[in-house]
Amino acid sequence: MKSWKDALCLQLVAIVILTVNGQELDLMRFMFNESKYDKRILPNVGLYGPLNVTVGLTIHRIEDLVEKSQQLVTHAVLHLTWNDPHLGWKKLVFGGIENITVKPGLIWLPDIVLFNSANQDYSSRRIGQMRPTIHHDGNVTIDCPVLLNTICQVDVLHYPLDRQKCDLVFGSWTHNSDQINVKSMPNMFDLSRYITNGEWEITGTKFEQHLEFYDSGNLAVYDVTFEIILRRRVLYYIMYLIAPGTIIALLTGIIFVLPQDCSERITVGMAILVALSFFFLLVSETMPASSNNSIIGEFYSITMVEITISFFLNIIVLRFHHMTEEKVPHWVKKYILNYGARLLRLTSRVENQQLQIMKRRQYLLTTKQKVSTIVHDQEQKLSNKILSDDAVIADVIKAEIKMAARDAEWKKAAEVLNIFSLIFHILIVVITFLFVFVDIRPHSH
């Protein structure tokens, strides 16, 4: 009994399927009768004005925004909708069928292309490979997955704290505004299926219809412009470009911490300058040729100049440290040994040196007094010889004391310049960083 009922149900289902298939076959014969429909003819022309083609876009993923070539690569689905009055039917006549999907190339399709494509555009060819869906009221829809490679003018002024605005411009390639009106319906810029990009964040979207004039105003064409505003995620650049450059710049101060008579000060300074140049080359390789310099490029350029200045200050310090045989100029004594040393509270060493000189002079006077006492107890001849030898020794000691005092003054001046150079270097690096990166909010295009 049960098997009989099952067989009856299967037969009924088969009848329904055959009926529906038969109705769809009748519908296809009705619509695509050669006397009724020709896909070579543009629908609606001359009857109801230009054909309205609605364009929508669903963004799936931003693959990359290449600054060097100024191209935006986007994975998306292009939605097209238009009405063809020759493809409508009455649902009741054909068993309530509301829509059918036909094979590619069976009906007329709009030649919608990406106007600002960065390479040869295959939008029309890609659309022609899709299966359109025809509705009973004559509306036709196509959903076409596309890989869009778009020209996007990149503004590198605030790189990497920047925002970029990229446009996707769609329009008909061969039909003017009298034939096709390309427009976008509300809520046709869809981000509901967007996959987050690791480098860029979409902060805004909008779409507008434009009427563009070509051939000196004789040809008018409608287009729809989808605008995407992208904001760069800056954490990667802070970690791998900004922070290393700042640390290297501050590390240059180590040449002023090394001993003043250390010959490796020059070598360390050159090594740090080469390291910063390497990072600067990494930045320049990613940037397009532009009349505007990026803020990170300015930061590296200024920092390299600062390191070069510190390098020359280090040479001056070394020159002062080893300039022991020349007389100390008056301006060095006044501005460096006097004002500078007092400002840094480094006067105690000079005073100790002067105290040692006074002690040596006191020793010489005491020696002379002892010799005078010996003169009275010995012969005059012997005493004269002792006094003569003592005078020679005293002159030598005076010369050594004078040389030691001069050497101490030069080294003291070098020490004061060294400390001032270290303070100057750290301050100028910090000021440069704050001046360039104090506003960390990304800037707009």
Rounded to the nearest angstrom, the radius of gyration is 44 Å
Structural class by sheet pairing and helices: alpha+beta
Spatial gap, N to C terminus? 77 Å
Count of separate DSSP helical elements: 8
The total of beta strands comes to: 11
Order of helices and strands: HEEEEHEEEEEEEHHHHHH
Domains (count)? 3
Q: Can you give the mean pLDDT?
A: 77
Helix content: 40-55%
Largest sheet: 7 strands, mixed
User: Quick one: CATH superfamily of the largest domain?
Assistant: Neurotransmitter-gated ion-channel ligand-binding domain
Described by the principal axes of the CA atoms, the overall outline is rod-shaped
Strand residue percentage: 15-25%
CATH class of the largest domain: Mainly Beta
Oligomer: single chain
Could you name the CATH topology of the largest domain?
Acetylcholine Binding Protein, Chain: A
Question: Can you put this structure into words, describing what you see?
Answer:
By secondary structure, the protein is of the alpha+beta class. Helices cover 47% and strands 22% of the residues. It has helices at residues 2-31, 123-128, 235-251, 264-286, 295-322, 330-344, 348-377, 380-437, and strands at residues 51-66, 71-83, 99-101, 112-114, 133-135, 139-151, 163-172, 180-183, 189-190, 200-214, 219-232. The radius of gyration is 44 Å and the shape is rod-shaped. It starts with a helix and ends in an 8-residue tail after the last helix.
Can you tag this structure with a few keywords?
four-stranded antiparallel β-sheet, 11 strands, alpha+beta, seven-stranded mixed β-sheet, 3 domains, 445 residues, Acetylcholine Binding Protein, Chain: A, single chain
